[in-house]
Amino acid sequence: MRLEAGDRVLVTGSSGFIGSAVTRNLVLRDVEVVTLVEAGVDTANLDELPVKQVAGDVRSATDVRNAIAGCRAVFHVAALYRFWARDQGDFYSVNVGGTRNVLAAARNEGVERLVYTSTVGTLGLEQVSGDLAADETSFPDVRHLYGSYKRSKYVAEHEVLRAAAEGLSVSLVLPTFPLGPGDRAPTPTGKLVLDFLNGRVPGYVDTVLNVAHVDDVAGGHVLALERGTSGRSYILGGENLTLQRLLGELAAITGLPVPRIKVPRSVSLVVAAVSEMVEGRLLRRHPSIPLEAARMSTSRMAFDDARARAELGYAPRPARDALADSARWFVERGAVVPRRRQKIRWRDSP
347 in a domain, yes or no? Predict the structure, then answer.
């Protein structure tokens, strides 16, 4: 389908990091954007945008049906994206139950196209080594889907694929490691940048991350809607960087010192296990180092987005731009402690 000015489009998860970027992209296209916003959430990412905010929860079939009525297309971005929760069932009620509600409403209301935001966390990484990266055909050993976030998204993907098999026109997009403005939570990805800025990253592990600008990821969502094949998945990524190089780029951009301690993977796992046991299970608060995040750090998360480039025309900018925009946004928002902020000397050029 081709979006036309005035088309009514629903975005779930619109107040979040990726969802708000998708919303901004749609506003620029002069479409009528309806946003489903959970009561009590921070809507600062939306408040200056000409969109219709509808109060509701993806876990409520009635709320979803009311929001989706009259919409030509839907971007289902909403998800519980974190590495820990007091009640692990929340991951399934939001990520799976909410997705089923959106799929059912889209069918019943005659929505023409739907784009579902999944994650590269559902792909297999066992074959990643050297220059070999994972792509959309890399299926996982389910034993390596660590944590309820990945598992619930894996289940939700199958609900989406089932809906596609039954005739719903839907494409899946799999963001990698998005960075940029608007990460208010912050997400686990943005937290790495913020922790570096605040001097909370003493070292690095031997891993690889695929860095993409959130605005490119948002543009990829719209490309998937207009050009994607139904039932097909598209990785929306950018550059594969070792964690050491990523931190080095941040140091070069900000003038802050680069972490030089290489932490053995076994040490990071032990520290995370203790953090999750003491803080998570005993104190019932978010662990400083979630075990799922540490387990991810033991995998080389390199991805190949060639399919999105070839089939959608996806063309992401350099990772350095995403890192610079993310760092500047956190500083401008006041999220960086004064003693570290005073040391920053911006150097945007390589």
Answer: no
